[in-house]
């Protein structure tokens, strides 16, 4: 009698454990599907949110696998203890076969988990590559192809933000601009190919003399400018003079041995916020006028807007 009672209890426990196992496996399959969804369709999410979400799901899946394995072990132990395998009634309900099937499913899921980790690594690498390409595409929209400097579009966008910041914190912001003197004469002497070399040369000189926080842009065909946060007009003029002298000390690339006088010169202008205005259009107009005044005075000169 007691033996039959123990057998009945054992059968009940075995059924409960098997049902729990099935529920856990179904839950785990749903979570694996969620991981695949996140990795495939949620690349546009914030990186931190995406990786944390996937990390939490993977931890939960690993925990469920641990529970399934433990429950399967308990089922096998109960069957061995009560000699369920020899009981015809239990053989009829197929507990042996069901337990074996669950073990196979668990092993298969462990293999799927390994594949899932590999897929996550591939998705992470793909996401990194996509972000790199997006950054590259963004850079192409805001830079000048020839010189690698910022273009006019970015110049205006950044200057707008910098002028807001300067006004908010009552800090100075200056702009210096340059235009190449007598470029048409150089083109006649040395040919059209020399133009790009001159532009690249000047772009290099501007980079060498600017700070990391300064923004250098090519505004027009032969015009350049530098936005100087936290620099007043007098300090900007000193930097513009330094750059003018640096340019004048250089020779036209690949033309040094063609003619005696192959020096490059630039005309420069300096404006500052808020002294010369607080609007982009106003500052740009005054900057161009200052450069034009330097050109009228035979070039190779820097003028602060009066």
The end-to-end span amounts to 112 Å
Q: Indicate the CATH architecture of the largest domain.
A: 2-Layer Sandwich
Amount of beta strand: 5-15%
How would you characterize the largest beta sheet? Answer: 5 strands, mixed
- H/E element string? HHHHHEHHEEHEHE
Please tell me the overall pLDDT.
78
> In CATH terms, what is the fold-level topology of the largest domain?
Alpha-Beta Plaits
**The CATH top-level class label of the largest domain:** Alpha Beta
In short:
67% of the residues lie in helices and 10% in strands.
Report what the structure shows.
The chain has a five-stranded mixed sheet, sandwiched between helices. The termini are far apart. It has two domains: 2-142; 152-304, Alpha-Beta Plaits. The protein has helices spanning 2-41, 47-82, 88-93, 95-142, 152-169, 183-190, 193-209, 233-248, 280-296, and strands at residues 173-180, 215-218, 223-229, 266-273, 302-304. Helices cover 67% and strands 10% of the residues.
